[in-house]
Amino acid sequence: VADYKALAPKFNPTGFSAHDIVALAKSSGMKYIVITAKHHDGFAMFDSKADPFNIVAATPFHRDPLRELAEECRRQGLKLGFYYSQDQDWTAPGGAAYKTGNHQPPTFHWDKAQDGDFAAYLHTKAIPQLKELLTNYGNFPAVIWFDTPTKEMTPALAGEIVALLNQHPNLIWNNRLGGSYPGDTETPEQYIPPQGFPGRDWESCMTMNDTWGYKAYDTNFKSTETLLRNLIDIASKGGNYLLNIGPDSHGIVPPPEIERLHQMGQWLSVNGEAIYNTQPTLFGGEAGSFSTTEKNNEGKPKFIPAWNWRSTTTANKIYIEIFTWPSGAFHLGRLPRNVTSAYLLADKTHKSLKITRTREGLDVQLPAKALEPIATVLVLNT
């Protein structure tokens, strides 16, 4: 713990620009940002009077990135949420820890400086810091994003946090507080659920490469095609896409991440109406099917996704996001609504496409080539 805390005076992210981060998010088509206020290491990325191990008091940077991000989000019209590790804290006495390596139960601590009472940690650090986060940043946060609850977070202790959260009725908080509280949102991590979470709000949190933070050697970035297909797949199942960026120690976002986000933003600038404020697919089978032979890690039938097309809907439109361009016509075998006309969203003239109805369903005549290389959106007016 002492060795880790000794690193704080060397942390000086002078390249950090709240303006640039928010502008990047906005240009990529994002509507909200979630920033890590405190992760499991216990270091607070904000000005905290509750504990001195924070970016303002313990580093030469002496600035509050959360305050700067809040100001920029207000200026540029985005929402801001705060991730806060309420349970695990590896540098505060009494903070919880997950089992790693050969660390021993019941605490899984590896330094006597970590030992202490969990309830005392909550009352002297976590809850006071949550109060700071909920009161010091104007109309933000819109979201509190909890993580990794342990058995130490009893229903009674979690209830104290919930009482604090309930003082902010417009606040959204997720399902990772602990103490059996379901929260407002489901949080599948690094995967997209086969059928979403019907009846529940949810967001898939995923990395752009293989790490949540910054690793100079991790260049395994997902392609823009994969990222956009993920976004469309998630939207078709009623979810949000919480896509991570990992700035380096200077506060600079890696160029490959910027490049991919700009490309996603370009697609959304043309096709965003098929994503924003839409409802899930009226079909379902287009996403794939469960294998009759293969099992997943839980021993259940493995879901095998299909990547030909997805669909989202509004009250009077069905959007078909086509990944694999068909030759001639696009066929729909089952139609839950009456289709009156069709066009391609990327066609600025919205030229009507020929529709043919048969006993087997409906065929929409398409041009020979797709208008978008990753996903061309077919709009069906209903």
From TrEMBL:
**Site residues by UniProt (May be important for catalysis):** C205
**Job description of the protein:** Alpha-L-fucosidase is responsible for hydrolyzing the alpha-1,6-linked fucose joined to the reducing-end N-acetylglucosamine of the carbohydrate moieties of glycoproteins.
What the entry lists under PANTHER family is as follows: ALPHA-L-FUCOSIDASE (PTHR10030), ALPHA-L-FUCOSIDASE-RELATED (PTHR10030:SF37)
Keywords from the named record: Glycosidase, Hydrolase, Signal
InterPro entries associated with the record:
FUC_metazoa-typ, GH, Glyco_hydro_29, Glyco_hydro_29_N, Glyco_hydro_b
* Keyword ATP-binding appears in the UniProt entry: no
User: Enzyme class, one word?
Assistant: hydrolase
Q: Name one GO molecular function term.
A: alpha-L-fucosidase activity
**Identification of the protein by name:** alpha-L-fucosidase
What family does the Swiss-Prot or TrEMBL record give for this protein?
Answer: Belongs to the glycosyl hydrolase 29 family.
Asked whether the UniProt record includes Protein transport among its keywords, one would answer no
- Under Enzyme Commission nomenclature, its number is 3.2.1.51
- Write down the SUPFAM superfamilies for this protein, in alphabetical order: (Trans)glycosidases (SSF51445)
One matching Pfam family is Alpha_L_fucos
- One cellular component term from this protein's GO annotations in UniProt: lysosome
GO biological process: one example: glycoside catabolic process
**Per the database record, which ranges form the Glycoside hydrolase family 29 N-terminal domain?**
3-273
Q: Tell me the organism.
A: Tunturiibacter empetritectus
Q: Lineage from the top down?
A: Bacteria, Pseudomonadati, Acidobacteriota, Terriglobia, Terriglobales
